[in-house]
Amino acid sequence: MPQNYSKLLEKQRDFFKTGKTKDVEFRIQALRKLKKVIISRNDEINKALKKDLNKSEFETFTSEIAGPLNEINFALKKLHSWTKPLKVKTPLILFRGKSCVYYEPFGTVLIITPWNYPFNLVMSILTGAVAAGNCCVVKPSELSPHTSGLVSEIIMEVFDEEHCASVNGGVSETTELLKEKFDFIHYTGSTNVGKVIARAAAEYLTPITLELGGKSPCIVDKSADLEASARRILWGKFLNAGQTCVAPDYLLIHKDIKKQFLDIMKKELLKFYGENPEESNDYVRIINEKHFDRIASLLSCGNIITGGRTNREKLYIEPAIIDGITWDDPVMRDEIFGPVFPVLEYENIDEIVEMITSREKPLALYLFSKNKSIWERIIKEISFGGGCINDVIFHQVSYYLPFGGVGNSGMGAYHGKWGFETFSHKKGILNKSLWPEIKLFYPPYNEKIKFVKKFLK
Asked: What is the pTM of this model?
């Protein structure tokens, strides 16, 4: 049964009021301890992710552990400079004034994370919140119980409860948490649940960041390097068995190279996982039976070019590429979030722009082309969260780039300084000199309007 979380929030609010989390050295020590514990519990993280998703040690380290460690290292390196007041220019009309932006933590933050990257997404987001000086309540996903349990253990080991705490449980626990008044909410997950989070946040006018999803297109132009493109696209699509919010959702391929490219993809897929990917140590499983059934039902669409074998008992779905797809097929209605890769063809760039812009804005977009004019047109004319040219997924690895969605795919961004800024209120301060005393704005106004208008020309 879910508990009442008011006492936990009260304890965190009281701790926040002490001002301890605003001390930069306090934040640094907390992040150093978090880093140390992540490294020391590497083997346990591997075992937990093996149980939850059948992740290999390599994939666990590269997609779950390395990201948070990089985020922590970057924050440790930059935190002193990030927290300094940012000096900005002052308009001439405010003569003898100095302007600064101060970064201050919101206070108590709720972080709700999903099951697909159950370690990475907790620790990377938590890093930004702690670096900004907040107290945090983390709600990891109940669908990845082994990893989420370990995440809670690590949080308890690193932080005192009044600073950061973890709440395990399912929908009922999340519902109870959302009844509380947090100062900021960060949610990663589906668009439908994101709407629920937004409604709950609106009750208290709580600011939010929503990292959602959508159907992220992958475009291959005639000028692309076909073999390199195939390898990169296949890796990104079938990483974590397609259970990645920024995975290429569908392939848009120029009709003139479609057959050649599909042949190359079949060969490269064979190199990745062998004749029977079920026996590969490098291929992940579907998280549970509910998601298995949903994804498996999509295999009835179009014509399977390669793959598509399933084993419900082992939650295994073989990487599948399917052709003969239209926008009316079930596989094209919602984000796939699994190892099914539908293929659509196009003839010109106008078709691409129309196809994508007439639908909800995607979280990511990937373009494989050597033609810079096509790059520029896609970036300029299509709205999407972020993406890559001649690669996939790696844009969200860089802590120098903001990662987030737009429209139906989310709002707000994080990673690196963007994460620090997301969890910080930007307080603008004007420090005005007492001399000279300019009486322009004081009544009686008389003809002063003429002088004010001159400043605005």
From this structure: 0.96
